[in-house]
Amino acid sequence: MAEACADLDRFISNQQYSEAIMLGLQMLQQGYDYEILEDELCYALTTFTQQLVTMQRHANAEWLWQKSLDLCQGQSEIILHGYAKFKCTLNEILQGIDVLHSFQQNNPPPLSLSLPLLESLENMKALVADQWHYRMLNDMERNEVSLLKSCMK
Question: Model pTM?
Answer without folding.
Answer: 0.74
